Amino acid sequence: MADRTSSSITIKAAKADIMAVIADLDAYPEWASGIRAFEVTETGDDGRARRARMTFEGGPISDTVGLAYTWDGDDAVRWELVEPGTVVTGLHGAYTLDGAGTGETEVTYELAVDVRIPMIGMVKRKGEKRIIDSALKGLKRHVER
């Protein structure tokens, strides 16, 4: 899982406001296309998810997986697969927020996914890129509205 796909977008909002949207996993189906359901199964002392189950549909891949989250305040969140699905065998991702106090924040999303079915690397990265771009655009629309 060394290869990761990443992309960035600038959102007109403070880091704390953007991270509040990212941390509200239950609301993802409202703005993140392909996410059908999120269930937080464990929270940390800060009230943010430590573990969750996500159900998604992404083109040829639909699955339900368990994820573990690590939060770095309003600067970053990372997640990794802890319960594989029927198709997804590996998943690592992160949102990193970089804001200079100008009212704009650069949000970078990294993602690496492994699946049980054989898939050419280029096709896999293209799928990851589509997921990332859709999520970043949905996040921007949701935060800036």
UniProtKB/TrEMBL annotation:
SUPFAM superfamilies: Bet v1-like
Domain of life of the native organism: Bacteria
Gene3D superfamilies: 3.30.530.20
Protein name, entry field: SRPBCC family protein
